[in-house]
From TrEMBL:
Family recorded in the similarity comment: Belongs to the GMC oxidoreductase family.
SUPFAM superfamilies: FAD-linked reductases, C-terminal domain, FAD/NAD(P)-binding domain
Any GO molecular function: oxidoreductase activity, acting on CH-OH group of donors
InterPro entries: FAD/NAD-bd_sf, GMC_OxRdtase_N, GMC_OxRtase_C
Provenance organism: Alkalihalobacillus alcalophilus ATCC 27647 = CGMCC 1.3604
Sequence ranges assigned to domain Glucose-methanol-choline oxidoreductase C-terminal in this UniProt record: 429-553
The name this protein goes by in its record: GMC family oxidoreductase
Gene3D superfamilies: FAD/NAD(P)-binding domain
One Pfam family here: GMC_oxred_C
Residue ranges occupied by any Glucose-methanol-choline oxidoreductase N-terminal domain in the UniProt entry: 218-331
Keyword annotations: FAD, Flavoprotein, Oxidoreductase
Length: 571
């Protein structure tokens, strides 16, 4: 029998970036809030031993325990899905701060084209372009101009260091901090791309270029360029991290309570409204019901989608008919890359930061003509210096065996004589890529696992090949004596790491028939439920998603406060 707790005005499920922002803003406005985080508490004191590549980067100490909850995966509808038994393609964070603890910090704004992708593609190329590629495109129900001030609010919270993007969207304010340091590697990339007629700029970074205080009174330290960002917490407090930048302020308001080890298993609802959530204390195994006036799901893409499906809230997506919305438009990213090997030049590749780098947007969005191309959109191309850690960094030329004396000799030789460039290729939705509940496998609590059905498409393969050729061109211009070979994009593989940039499943829009939430991320089917995060993306762009996730979180808070006063559907 579950113990029913005293009612709160708002309950938040998941305390990563989105949950932390919402907690701080609602508590600041006088709302009584409780946050439920299924993992443990984290903070700077937990990161003092973080320079342990084996523990954190290889054995995933900050990540979700897949023995208790995982996903199942298949390529096609006619295949049986099997559980993902080890972290690979993407890394699911757990504990306070979520993936905001172990991210690299690259923080872009999606392009105006992204938010009106269907309309703008049809206007320029005709609807036949979309139909030929079998894409399930839709606009997001909001424009870049409407979202612009919320982007800046998140950039202030995360302390973004950056400079103007010559091909990026209009900004009304400069970045809170100047860009990070120029290095010989970033300078070489910029010179090469300028030589080719492109428009380089420094990667916008949530690694602090200087000591910075954000709007919540949090002081973030200047980056030390130690090279331990991705998969690690920052012991210097020099990376935008919710546990440092936002959560302390939320607690100081006196209106916010954070409960750890609280695994939410159900959104309780009736009559088109939620009444609260059911959760299990994972340490004591006790079950509780937390009633609330407003229920906010701010977990990861998979978490938000699965919780709605197991709660029978919203209409599940059916890929055969195209009806339903929960689980629809799951997207990922493409990662063409190239490594250049240099005979004479040496670089301090062991130094770096998660978002130290330079990039170009000449082949992102619709910044180039697609009339004669067999794909739409594109990707941001970047040369980043994240710090080559010794266990995982073994760049060797093509044809080298992956073991033995030759491998060891060339690994050492090219450790400081190799540079990599990669692109984040956009991912377009198709009817057959989606999320639902697995009919066979269950988690530790007897609930169905989430099932992912996903594979690359011809759109993906064509984009990957085109961007890959641009990468080779740039690397040769940088002076590499030889470059790595790139295989063709075939079937998606869930094992090797790619990016933790999963999107979709609870997508936003202006039509309840084709979207799950409106532009305040309020559910069409339950007016007091807000589902916040990259699950709202109707497709994935050629950037890291966090900046857009943060902007949508601030926009959603505005909707929650409006709902608190007025009730009803907000749009």
């Amino acid at each position: 029998m579950a113990t029913e707790l005293p009612k709160k005005e708002a309950v938040i499920v998941g305390m990563g970036w989105t949950g932390s922002i919402i907690a701080a803003e609602l508590a600041k406005a006088g709302v009584e809030v409780v946050g439920l985080e299924r993992g443990k508490e984290r903070g700077l004191k937990d990161y003092y031993v973080v320079h342990d590549e084996l523990r954190y980067a290889i054995r995933y100490d900050l990540m979700q325990d897949l023995s208790k909850e995982t996903i199942t995966f298949r390529h096609h509808l006619n295949e049986r899905a099997l559980p993902m038994r080890q972290m690979g393609s993407f890394l699911l964070g757990e504990g306070s701060g979520g993936s905001g603890v172990h991210w690299n910090g690259q923080t872009y704004r999606f392009l105006p084209y992204d938010f009106q992708i269907r309309t703008q593609t049809i206007e320029k190329y005709g609807e036949e372009k979309i139909n030929q590629l079998n894409l399930q495109l839709q606009d997001w129900g909001i424009t870049y101009d409407e979202l612009e001030p919320y982007f800046y609010e998140f950039e202030k919270a995360a302390g973004i260091s950056g400079e103007a993007n010559p091909l990026g969207p209009e900004r009304k304010n400069e970045y809170p901090n100047p860009p990070m340091k120029e290095t010989p590697i970033t300078a070489k990339f910029k010179q090469a791309t300028e030589n080719l007629g492109y428009h380089p700029f420094h990667v916008p970074s949530s690694n602090m270029s200087q000591t910075y205080e954000n709007q919540y009174g949090a002081t973030l330290s200047a980056c030390q360029y130690c090279g331990y960002c991705e998969r690690f917490g920052c012991e210097y407090g020099a990376k935008g991290d919710p546990t440092v930048a936002v959560i302390p302020f939320a607690k100081e308001t006196g209106n916010f309570e954070l409960r750890h080890f609280a695994n939410v298993t159900e959104v309780i609802h009736e009559g088109g409204k939620a009444t609260g959530v059911r959760y299990i204390d994972v340490k004591t195994k006790e079950e509780f019901i937390q009633p609330a006036d407003i229920v906010i799901l701010s977990g990861y893409v998979m978490t938000n989608t699965r919780l709605l499906l197991t709660s029978n809230l919203g209409s599940p997506y059916n890929p055969e008919t195209g009806a339903g919305v929960i689980g629809k438009n799951y997207c990922y990213q493409l990662l063409p890359g190239v490594t250049g090997f240099f005979d004479e030049e040496r670089f301090n590749t062991f130094m770096g930061a998660g978002a130290l780098g330079a990039s170009i947007d000449d082949f992102n969005g619709d910044n180039f003509d697609h009339a004669d191309l067999d794909f739409i959109h594109g990707g941001n191309i970047a040369c980043t210096q994240t710090g080559a850690r010794p266990i995982a960094s073994n760049n060797v030329p093509a044809g080298t065996r992956s073991w033995g004396s030759e491998f060891k000799e060339l690994s050492i030789n090219y450790y400081t004589r190799s540079i990599s460039i990669s692109a984040q290729g956009a991912s377009m939705p198709v009817r057959e890529n989606y999320l639902d509940l697995d009919p066979t496998y269950k988690d530790a609590y007897g609930l169905p696992l989430l099932r992912m059905t996903y594979n690359f498409t011809e759109q993906d393969r064509n984009l990957y090949h085109y961007i890959g050729e641009r990468l080779d061109e740039i690397m040769l211009e940088m002076g590499a004596s030889q470059i790595s070979e790139r295989s063709n994009l075939e079937n998606y593989d869930i094992v090797p790491y790619q990016t933790t940039h999963n999107t979709g499943g609870v997508i936003m829009g202006d039509d309840p028939g084709t979207s799950a939430v409106n532009n305040y991320l309020q559910m069409w089917d339950a007016e007091n439920v807000f589902v916040v995060g990259a699950s709202a993306f109707a497709h994935n762009s050629g950037y890291n998603p966090t900046g857009t996730v943060g902007a949508l979180a601030y926009r959603a808070v505005e909707g929650m406060l409006k709902y608190r006063e007025e009730g009803g559907n907000l749009v």
